[in-house]
Amino acid sequence: MPKNPSETLGGWAQVQDEKGRLVYGPDGKILKEKVKICDGTLPDGTSQALYFRQGHLKAGWFKGIAVILEDQPGFTAEWSQLETKCNEHGITVIFLPKFHYFQTVHTDLLTHAKELTGKQAAWASKKYQGHCVPPEKIMDEFDAAHPLGL
Question: Would 85 be classed as within a structural domain?
């Protein structure tokens, strides 16, 4: 994840038709489309926008980790001792703690797929990494990928 705003950040997903089948281009390759990362969820359950909203100068751009963390309540409310000391000497400090966004995505993915066993959850996490929510037909896809229910 970039620290600063990015116009190009997102992922690529395979294009599927209305029946869930892959769509191929004239060259025989699977078509892909650019997708945005889903908004996050704060511990209190409120949504955390990861992209600038309509009306903003950079609408549609990824905010960047620095801006996302500044949006968090209480994150910028008080300075750390390091920031205070550096500020006294005219040095600007940007404090960015560890941020495990992808772990949150996988947790959300598995939360939405409530009825999966451990093996099914591992399979879904691998197959749908980069997706915000697995498709409704995930159990059918798992059965098709594992004919004996393995």
Answer: no
Range of the domain at 108: 100-150
Q: What is the mean pLDDT of residues 35-45?
A: 81
Radius of gyration of the chain (CA): 20
| Average pLDDT over every residue of 100-111 | 46
d(CA 62, CA 64): 6
SS3 47: strand
- Our count of domains for the chain comes to 1
Query: What 3-state class would DSSP assign to 132?
Result: coil
Helical H runs in 14-137? 65-71, 81-88, 101-112, 118-127
11 in any annotated domain = no
Cα separations in angstroms, 123 against 32, 127, 131: 22, 6, 13
Q: Looking at the domain assignment, is residue 141 inside a domain?
A: yes
- The verdict on residue 117 lying in a domain is yes
Structure tokens at 48: 């955390």
More confident site: 79 or 114:
79
* φ, ψ of residue 82 in degrees (nearest 5): -60, -45
Residues 71 and 54: their CA atoms lie apart, in Å, by 17
Question: Is there a contact between 106 and 132 (Cβ–Cβ < 8 Å)?
Answer: no
Q: Reply yes or no on whether the pLDDT at 26 is more than 90.
A: yes
